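[audit] Reproducing an earlier prediction to check determinism. Same input, same settings, fresh worker. If the tokens differ from the archived copy the diff job will pick it up downstream; this log only records the rerun itself.
[audit] input (459 residues):
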Amino acid sequence: MDFTPFTQSEKDKICADMCSMIKCKTVSDLDDSKIDHAEFEKFAGVLKQAFPKIYSECNFYKVGKNGLVHKISGQKDNAAYKAGHAVVLMAHYDVVPVEEQNWDFLPFAGDIVDGKIRGRGTMDTKGTLCACMEAVELALGKGWQPVQDLYLCFSGEEEINGQTCGDIVSWFEENNITVDFVLDEGGAIVDNVFPGVKKLCAMVGTEEKGSTYLDLVVSGKPGHASAPPKHSSVGIASQIVEAIENKQARVEFTPTVCQLLKTMGKNNNILPMKFIFSNLWLTKPLVNLISKLMGGELFALLHTTCAVTKFSGSTSYNVLPSKATVGMNFRLLGKDTVEKTVSKVEKIARKVAGKNADIQVNVVSYGNPSKVSDIKCSQWETLSKTINETWPDILVSPYLMMACSDSRHYCRITDKVYRFSAMFMSKADRAMIHGVNEEIRIEELLKTVEFYSKLIAKL
């Protein structure tokens, strides 16, 4: 099935469908009582109405709390068909909360202004969900059928690290289905990704950091603020935080990061950069030093990081807190684990606190680093070829995801998990994700539909 340009009526439908999806206020929350479940049902209804071919010709399953699974059966009479095997294209349709007063337009406007569709979720990730469904709907209308069974799987709990995607993976296991390829959100088409690299780059996530939330609880002596001890529980907690932030992070060059840096070196126009990143066998200590001096993303690519995000003590100005609680988010790299992290925090905290306070470390949520996906396989070749066909003269590189995605759940059943949001995202675009004034250019949405159309033609 060759790709043909969209007609005007097809373009209009794609835009209208996307607007309808954005108008659904599918905001997820750790507090279930704050979730408007009717909006999630509304979204499912929008899909059913917008994609009649998919819902009439394919099998639909509701899995877990709000998982939407669509099966497009493969060509069983094709010699290449493998019974019990599957390809998975996935996305999530829940979105993060919004502070409406900070937006220049209604967060769930779902309108079109100046060639852009506006609203929460346009980039993360109703855009890719819409594009995926549109591509399949159009293909079915032209008589297409995938060689292999194709599943379109969407979760409504990604933003809260919910279990729905995990339930979908368990559903595959229970039904003895082997998943051979997974494509989820992740890296995108970006420019100026690296000093000295002029080409656009397609950053495909092949590895994902683990994300762990810890509460450090420091219990001290309560009492009246008029006669405080030398250090209250909040003061001791502050010292512990300083010690944790100052702790030298261990460097680790994972296979994905090595491949990324080598790609950026090979295609670099700055000779020192080209040498440094093309010869990691020699320059790793220098790269580590540069990462510590620069900080930011380069540092995060090579180290486990800790962000202190929450701090609480007494509720009154004149009362000493009986305990102080510090919330921390660790992003674990490579060989680091939750167990190692908890042990490290406890060791630092007890050394700082001494006998002045009791220490407790509570794991709120946890996730170890993912396995590394295979890039020496036909699935990677197919994905890379499709990217190059859609965006000619572009670099394709493995990429370490520092954020979490639902696709991590699939790592327990396959090593063919790829994280790629098939659209160009400028630095300003990326800032809109979880930010304000989120919107997507219509031409970019259509390009994403084109990508999925070319991809499924190879499946």
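[audit] rerun output stored. Observation attached for the diff report: The mean pLDDT is 95.
[audit] end
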